[in-house]
From TrEMBL:
GO terms for biological process: lysine biosynthetic process via diaminopimelate. It comes from Endozoicomonas numazuensis. This is Diaminopimelate decarboxylase. Signal peptide: none annotated. One of its GO terms (molecular function) is pyridoxal phosphate binding.
Amino acid sequence: MDWFPSRDGELYAEQVPVTHIAEQFGTPAYIYSRKGFEEGYKAYKQALDGWPHLICYAVKANSNLAVLNVLAKLGAGFDIVSVGELERVIAAGGEASKVVFSGVGKQRHEIRRALELGIYCFNIESEVELERIQEEAEAMGKVASVSVRVNPDVDAQTHPYISTGLKDNKFGIDIKAAPAVYKRAAELPNIEVVGVDCHIGSQLTTKEPFIDALDRLLLLADQLREMGIILKHLDIGGGLGIAYEAHEHPPTPADYLGQVRERLAANEHHSHLEIVVEPGRSIAAQAGMLVTQVELIKQSDHKAFTVVDAAMNDFLRPSIYSAWHGIEPVVADSQKEELLCDVVGPICETGDFLGKDRKLKVTEGDLLAVRSAGAYGFGMSSNYNSRCRPAEIMVDGNQVHLVRRREKLTDQWADEMLLPEG
Ligand SMILES: Cc1ncc(COP(=O)(O)O)c(C=O)c1O
Ligand SMILES: N[C@@H](CCCC[NH3+])C(=O)O
């Protein structure tokens, strides 16, 4: 379903023409569709209906408070990787009791805050962390629920920078070493073992790596049962991809989770396991786009550049992963001449591009939409080249809401100070 439909050659965000939003709030701007997030979440909800589950939206994908609030209202849980994300969840009305805390470097103050708020569980990624959580929980007179994030050594067949489940990756505990870690966890007085977890990578477009990882997790669950450790849940992480390009056909949540359910239902020792998922991209990506204005067109003998007012500081994915995102004029004009060009920003880096070798009918001043930018868009933005980060806007039917104002120059240096005189 497209939350940004084209009507008579003009792009809309739900029921509002994108040109109106750009006129009101300027560019570059992220525009989100409330329905997009809601439907993204509901696809998981429906896929897991009738099976005990917890859907923990991965906050890193898009952590705007309005986004978290929309999902919290639907009952979502959250996957966090820092105390900052935890406080955002709470500020947005999310429930700590539905939070799982992932990440390889949880600091003691973060562990304490998570314990204080009573999160559902820590996905522990090393033995050092297990001992740390035990110490902090003991000092606070609490019991910490933990799940061990295992590294199943499965190739996610995605971009190497967003693959996380190979033995060379920093994430999780080698699945072969996991039983010993569980044994230790079960002995610790302030630790309760509740589950097993894995997250093998992001933007997976086939089910096979997920199912391979699942099978390895289930073997581990069997091994643990023989040791007397009975798991309550199975956290299969996030990672489900989306179709950035028309030729990509990732499985739907129903298709993927349908197969997971079949696998669990087939074995009496697995059929009690609650399913926890941590989707980010598959909920957020298509619920947002980045709108930018063409500053000028630069033509040389052998190449044309469409220079826009958004840059890698606003949207980093093309620069760091060579990620492909659809780029289209907000108002189509068939009379214009088609130009083969790179769409680039004004930043002083060769890697500052939003798209390469695109055929676009554009002229100076036109608006362009960079599609599927709702995930890992604003969250990865920066002030590089002293550029202000863009505004974020959420459309709800025919209503337009500013959910983060455009940064001001003075915001950028508000926390900086000069050296004393002399
Ligand atoms: C532990 C963990 N869970 C969930 C996610 C969300 O992944 P995705 O956005 O691919 O669904 C990530 C990011 O890859 C992650 O590191
Ligand atoms: N930031 C990445 C995904 C990394 C996911 C975090 N584990 C992206 O834009 O695709």
